[in-house]
Amino acid sequence: MNVAILQYNAGNIRSVYFALKRLGVEPLITSNIEELNKADKIIFPGVGEASSAMENLYQNQLDKAIINFKQPVLGICLGMQLLCKHSEEGNTKGLGIFNNTVKRFPTNKGFKVPHIGWNNISKLNSKLYENLKENDYVYFVHSYYADLNENTNAVCNYILEYSAGLQKDNYFATQFHPEKSGDIGEKILKNFLSI
User: Fold this and answer.
1) Nearest to residue 160, comparing CAs of 146, 174, 150?
2) When you count CB atoms within 10 A of the terminal residue's CB, does the N or C end of the chain come out lower?
3) Pick the catalytic residue: 84, 89, 142, 179?
4) pLDDT digits 0-9 by tens, 50-83
5) Angle at which helices 182-194 and 13-22 cross, to 10°
6) Is 115 assigned a catalytic role?
7) Any catalytic annotation for residue 177?
8) pLDDT single digits (tens) 33-57
């Protein structure tokens, strides 16, 4: 299976790479549009700041490529947020695959922001979560969240309920990091590879 990890100026690519290697997949890390189009699956990871990440996508014409992919795509963390229509981080226009707005967590509720650590996900509604149980725990690191809407396929509650996962057509996304979520994350990556 030909799996590509989309390379742009956002961190966390190596941990995704090693998570896939543990599953017996040798992924290609690339920003080459032709190579991405040939891949069977594409992973769009990211840790970083939304506006500078989008700027990098524009400069390399990856914005147009991403919205036209026909194969299964998995956005992770910042990758998920950039697939949404807008982010409050840097007042950034997103790629618009998902009709969600990305907002900053309120900081006046007595909770720490960013949300870092293990939390449970519920209302699971996707092939991505096959063989998972309601309220399984996964690993999060984020200060911004995607609101709930028709694209939501998993929910987390931290300060408020928000989209832990999104899905539309061939696009899947998780706010949490499956590559850092132990056995549960491994199951999710396996499920994505089998879609």
Assistant:
1) 146
2) N
3) 179
4) 999 999 999 999 999 999 999 999 999 999 999 9
5) 80
6) no
7) yes
8) 999 999 999 999 989 999 999 999 9
